[in-house]
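User: Okay, second chain of the day. Same drill as before: sequence in, structure tokens out.
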Amino acid sequence: MWDGPEKTRLSPRERLALMDIEAHLRQDRGFARRMGGGAHRERGERAHRRIWLPTGVLLLTLASAFCVVMGISTADPGLLWCFAVLWPLTLFQALRLLCRLARRRGRAGERSGSRR
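Assistant: Same drill. Structure tokens below.
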């Protein structure tokens, strides 16, 4: 393993220490995000995670609507309590989704504005 333009060779101990540092940095998601994305494996994971928030919001919305409609029509307190638990979670996840979409639009605006 050569290091830099000086063409100096790293000792086995230095190589091991460097591999250990790189392994720790790869595990730090915040660092990878700040450094601009990371490996292709992370891009696939990001695309996979991108699907789960909208799906979760949709399912929570459907479950909340079902609980409120059935709770009102049957006057079952259990269903109304279920709605009372699900609705704040639904709103929180919907807010996260809207923030993500706004951030994505902001980034797209920055990219198109910088090309001029």
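Residues 60 and 96 are 13 Å apart (CA to CA).

User: Thanks, on to the next one.
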